[in-house]
């Protein structure tokens, strides 16, 4: 234990020495070493260091830096006294970063928000202020956090994400102060601040289970939202809108609903996530879009990455992978869902009824009945063009 502390102290001293000598490249190398070293024992620290490294690519001057030079008085990031966890995570993404896949209404709302900032003078001339705050609502893995990062990059400001686990892990009675310290820090420069998974603290104040601590936290958030400067953008995200205090809800200028992707968005996602392997899988897109119904973007991305790795390793052909995936998927479907899947496969692919029965567990008789004696497959050439 003592050894460990000694070692950490020596790491700290070394880092300070390199930083004061302005040996930036050495600082980078040393930080990269620390990332590897602490990944096992202090994953949060490792992750944070890694983010800092990534957000400051070696030597090249980031556009962000040009726009907002580091303020001389910039202090250290706020840290919880007990856990020493950094309360804020910082992201500085490239504005050229790919736009998240968004439904058209979300896209419209966010583009207006960006435009309001770009033309804030025009708004001001008419006595209007740009949208100050927005709440992102939607199930996990559909891009709430990703979109916050993209928005900040579009606005050329850093994104601070308030780590509510760190706030909550602080000593009872101190989380309010921690929360305030973190928000105050973010207020010091134009930025986007994301209160991620805000339901973690913003439970309904009338909840029986509420302890005073939670109530105080909600009060702090309410005040902070009210006092949030128009120069920044305050975002909150939640998977549980029903848990949000209505008083808090009302304070957000804009509500943005993120949805589980529909068929068209799933196809776009497949195209994006498959990247160069899209051509290989193009003939399966309709089937995959059907099978991925109800999945979040992040689930789709995960499975697609798995396909691509398998193909890269030669561990299976695209057909094998899709077939295995459909089999697994069919298990999760009810009877009618399996029949729909079988009919789809019969109409859209060259698979034999035998193979389809094998994949879906639907009997060939049933498949025949539903496809109405339509000969399976062979109507394909036109399709592929439409997909490309
Ligand atoms: N709308 C989207 N467009 C593109 N990729 C997405 C989208 N939503 C999720 N993803 C992928 O899934 C990952 C997790 O999404 P995230 O933004 O953390 O979801 P949420 O915050 O809604 O739970 C993202 O980093 C991205 O790789
Ligand atoms: Mg999220």
From TrEMBL:
The keyword ATP-binding applies. Keywords: ATP-binding, Nucleotide-binding. Residues 130-262 form the AAA+ ATPase domain. Pfam families: AAA (PF00004). The keyword GTP-binding does not apply. Signal peptide: none annotated. One of its GO terms (molecular function) is ATP binding. Belongs to the AAA ATPase family. PANTHER family: 26S PROTEASOME REGULATORY SUBUNIT. This is ATPase family associated with various cellular activities (AAA). It comes from Thiomonas bhubaneswarensis.
